[in-house]
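In full, the data.
>
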Amino acid sequence: MNATVTKKAGKGATDGVVSEMATYFHIKPGHEQECAAACQRMVEALKQAPMAATIKTGLRDTRHVIFNNGTELLWATTFETEWEPYIDDAFLTVGFEHFVDWMQHTTEWDTKIAPWIEKSGGLESLTGDKTREGFDEHIIANMAGMRWILQDGQQKATAYWNPVSSLTMSEITKAERINAAFQEVLDDPAAEEALQHPALKPLLAQAAS
């Protein structure tokens, strides 16, 4: 059965503001360890990226799973923005080179990805200095092919639920900052008198829960 394609989630499922994507690849024989190392490098690059940049892409989480005796790879990710800008921003923000790093170890590289790269002007045009004139525009203009590749190997979740799907990452991180600031106030002896004000009772009740 063909999956329904929506503007919000592409071929994936949605819960609240969060959508999911699960795309499957086949690992080239003998490339399991190299592929695993490349996937880890991409995750490390994401960890080092500024939080604001990560939030801008819409990313909630991402993971790679090698299975079936090292012959197949799952790339699963969840996101808040619409499908097309999420994929576009992910490749722009993370850097296409980090996707190339692990994708080159899949059989889809030879059959789909490398031909798309060549058609898009070659690998050099998609990587390197992101500040050069026209770089972003060139990536965006050619991303339809990559989105097709991802959706061609995608399977929609049979069931999907996210316990905090009503909140965006911006709201979650803001709540963390507010909580940290409030805890500082609670720990400050100079604030004791001010905290006795009846208007602050709901906040204190939340802090105590």
Notes: The chain has two domains: 12-153, 167-206. DSSP finds nine helices and four strands in the chain.
